[in-house]
Every structure is written in C-alpha cells, then in structure tokens.
Amino acid sequence: MSSSPLNVAIIGMGTVGSGVAKILLNRAEQMTARAGRPIHLKRAVVRDLSRTRDINLPAGVLTDDVESVINDSTIEVVLQLVGGIDPAYDIMLRVLESGKDVITANKALLCEKGELVFQRAKELGRCICFEAAVAGGVPLIETVTQAMTANQIISIEAILNGTSNYILTEMFSHNTSYADAVRTAQEIGYAEADPAMDVDGTDAAQKLGILVQLALGVKVNLDQFLRQGIDSLSLADLQYADELGYTVKLLAVAKLLDGQLEMHAQPTLIRNDNPLAHVEDAYNKIALEGDAVGKVWLSGMGAGQMATASAVVANLIDVAVGRAAITFPRLNLWNSSQNIQILPREDISRRYFLRLNVEDRPHVLADITNVLGNHEISIASLVQHEAPEVDETENYPIVPLVIMTHRTTEGQFQAASRELDALDCIRAPFVRMPVND
C-alpha cells in the first residue's frame, strides 16, 4: 500500500458533492483500505461560500476559486459535479489539460459533448469516469462497457429517472395530484427547485442517448427520437391504466429491429405482470438484452444524495487503484463507427392509450371512431363510466373516454390525433401514451 495520499478536489458541492464529501471524510479508513492509499479531499469548489451546508469541511478545503484546483499540480483527480454545459464543458477541458483525471455525474455534458471530451482525454493520457451520470447508484455503465462485452446488446428498456418514478408512485399510492407529488419530491430532495428536465423527459432521454452510444456505438441527438414527460399526466390517467391492468412509467427504450434502432423516452403503459411495473419511489430498473446472455436486470436507487455519491466514490476507487487508467484508453467508449440508422418515428409500431374529455351527447363516439377508422386504427377496448342524467336543456356534461387501440404506427396515430384535436366534442387535455406489450 502506498503511503502517499491521493489528493482530490470536488467542483460543485450540491447534493451529490456533499454526499461524496461525507463518504470521504466519515469513512476515511475504509476508503484507504479499498484504494490502497489514503484519499485526501484537498479542495471543494462552490459558487457561494456563505451558503449553509450539511457537512463540516476541514479548514482550508472550501473555496470559490476553481483556479486553485486547476493550478494545483498535487491534485490528481477532480470530481466534477456541476450540471449543464456551460461552464462545465470548459472546466472539464481545463481540468484534463492540467493533468488531472475527471469523475463526473453530468449526463447533459456527456450526451452533448461526450465525443469531444473523451477524445481530448485520450490525447492527454487522462481518463474520464461517469458511472453516476446514468442510473444513480446502479452499476449500469460498468455492466454495459465491461460485463456484457461478449454480447451485442439488442434491447434496452429502462426506468432511468428516479424523480419521475417517485412522483408517479406518490400520485398513485396516495391519490394525490401531480403538483402535490412534485412538491413532496422537492421537500425530500428527489426533485430540484426547477424539476423541468426530470419531468419533461429530457433527463431520461439524455441517459438513453449515453447508453445507446456505449452499447451500440451510435451517436443520437435528442431531436432524433420521441421524448415526452410526465408533466401532462393526471391521477386519472394512472387510475384508468390500473383499471386496464397496466402501470404508467417513464420508460426509455432502444431496440435493434432489422438493422434499425427504435428509440423513445415516454410515459408508457406497462403490463402489471412486467417487473418494470413494480419499480416504486426513486428506484431505477434496467433490462438489458444481449444476444449471448439474454436478458439482464439491474435495479437500485436512481436519485438521492448517497446513492449517486456511492457511484462517484466507486469511480474514484477505480482511479486510485489504477483500473481506470487501464480500461479507459482501451474500451473506446465513445466510438461512433456503427452504421445503424434510427428508425423513423412515424414507422414505430405499437398500441396506444387515449384519454379524451368528451361531451356526453349522441354521435360523439361515432365521430371519434370514424377518425380512428379513417387512419386504419382499430379499437381494442373502450371505457366510459356511466354519467348522471341531465336535463336536455342543460349543457352536455364533459366525461372521460378511455380508448386502447390495437397496434398501429406512430405516423398513423399522430395523423389521427391531429384530427381528434379538431373535433368540437373533445375538450383539452387530450392524453396519449404508448403501450409496452
């Protein structure tokens, strides 16, 4: 065991950064045993020194000067735990160029700039580790890039956003509204003050993009595949899905079909006998299918301070013992040489759930089925609960109508949806979700 400490710095002392610092400071002896040398937290960079934090750092560690990290040649590893692209991209490049290895949890940066930063790291003889960027505490990146390397991964079906999964669980389990579930998620630290990227599907889509890059060698931009969030759903949608034998989850999917890649990240109806339907709270669950091993399941906490910090520290141990220096330059993680085309979204084939708010009057159902029939969409089931009788002189009441279709294409479905939107018997909101059978 080397007696010289490994000096590290954290840039970004938010939720995850504070969790990492807790592990390094509170479990120092255990980390030393696993790393083969002491790990010394030398700097922690923040934007606001006056902000109250839930951890007491040793004197001299906390700073607002990122240059004190970049210019310190004794710091060997930087845990870059700031989000977004700017200034994170510039900071990462400068850290690498200063001769330091990088560990990050920034999926947005990797999704957009991964090829550039990986190439620069290789040119400089440095490494980038990012286990925490995709599924919180779940060892998904290591599984895809190392444990399953004997396989061609042909399918990914995953719940990758712990915040959205917690919100959906809270809504259904406690019969609460979307807004109230979001507030609860914020109060316990699963959702940010602005939860937009979690609830609009961006976070799950970015993570899916990273997985596709690693598993299939395909660079995919977010605008190339369907992305939809949970922010348009209500408790009624979850209850109707349950009545039909399904659970709603924000599901990220990538499948190889006849040489093309089907991709989408959307709230989806999943049959209740599917293991993905039973993932609750902030947990993630991922089904990877390899052509040799078959289906592999991974599950664990996908949000929260210590779960994500766990993955960051695991990467730090990899760097400390020298594993990362061996594997990073040889795995060719950001190779985009595969000539796999994205299946056009209009050609995606599946079933759909529709919830329409309609006037309870004659001929409404005929109007709706006529639109669907004109686009060759067949109805598998229909649910309309009995409405109270009203006097003929009163306005027609608005009632929910739930339709499950047979298999159709996204192109046909979208064309029908535009015509349904134009019907004067339908009131907003008009909820549409795919079905995963």
List keywords for this structure.
about 425 residues, alpha/beta, Rossmann fold, Dihydrodipicolinate Reductase, domain 2, six-stranded parallel sheet, 16 helices, elongated
CATH class of the largest domain: Alpha Beta
Radius of gyration: 24 Å
Structural class: alpha/beta
> CATH architecture of the largest domain, please?
2-Layer Sandwich
Residue share in helices? 25-40%
Question: Which segments are poorly predicted (pLDDT under 50) over 5 or more consecutive residues?
Answer: none
Largest β sheet strand count, sense and barrel closure: 12 strands, mixed
User: In percent, how much strand structure appears in the residues?
Assistant: 25-35%
Q: How many helices?
A: 16
Distance between the termini: 53 Å
Question: Might you state the CATH topology name of the largest domain?
Answer: Dihydrodipicolinate Reductase, domain 2
Shape by Cα distribution: elongated
Family: Belongs to the homoserine dehydrogenase family.
Keywords: Amino-acid biosynthesis, Methionine biosynthesis, NADP, Oxidoreductase, Threonine biosynthesis
EC number: 1.1.1.3
Catalytic activity: L-homoserine + NADP(+) = L-aspartate 4-semialdehyde + NADPH + H(+)
Topology:
Blueprint: E1 6-11, H1 15-26, H2 28-35, E2 39-45, E3 62-63, H3 67-70, E4 77-80, H4 88-97, E5 101-104, H5 107-124, E6 128-129, H6 132-135, H7 140-147, E7 153-159, H8 162-174, H9 178-187, H10 196-199, H11 202-216, E8 226-227, H12 235-243, E9 246-257, E10 260-271, E11 283-290, E12 294-301, H13 305-321, H14 323-331, E13 341-342, E14 349-359, H15 364-374, E15 379-383, E16 398-405, E17 408-409, H16 410-422, E18 426-436
Parallel strand pairs: 1-2, 1-4, 2-3, 4-5, 5-6, 8-10, 10-13, 10-18
Antiparallel strand pairs: 7-9, 7-11, 9-10, 11-12, 14-16, 14-17, 14-18, 15-16
